[in-house]
Specification:
Radius of gyration: 13 Å
Number of strands: 2
Structural class: alpha+beta
Strand order of the largest sheet: 1-2
Largest sheet: 2 strands, antiparallel
Order of helices and strands: HHEEHH
């Protein structure tokens, strides 16, 4: 298991958890949770060789009890659309 983040994939390639986008700035969900602050996002977590969104993990594990709606997560985080961080 690596303790370093993977390199950023090309724009549009599947997300590999490099964390570049969340280090650079907060997404709409991060801004709603933490206010208008600069990146990196406080929710960013590193586990098992990649970065993960702590807000998504909390939602998935049921600790936030539906506060974040799945369609908003999918749209804001470009889930299923690939890397949306410009090179």
């Amino acid at each position: 298991m690596s303790d370093t983040a993977p390199e950023k994939p090309p724009f549009g390639a599947p997300c590999n958890g490099c964390g570049v986008c969340c280090i650079a700035e907060l997404c709409q969900i991060g801004s709603a949770a933490f206010g208008d602050i600069p990146g990196p996002c406080p929710a960013l977590q590193f586990h098992h060789g990649r970065f993960w969104c702590g807000l998504v993990l909390a939602e998935y594990e049921g600790r936030r009890q539906g506060i974040i709606e799945l369609p908003l997560l999918e749209h804001t985080l470009a889930i299923g659309r690939g890397c949306d961080a410009e090179d």
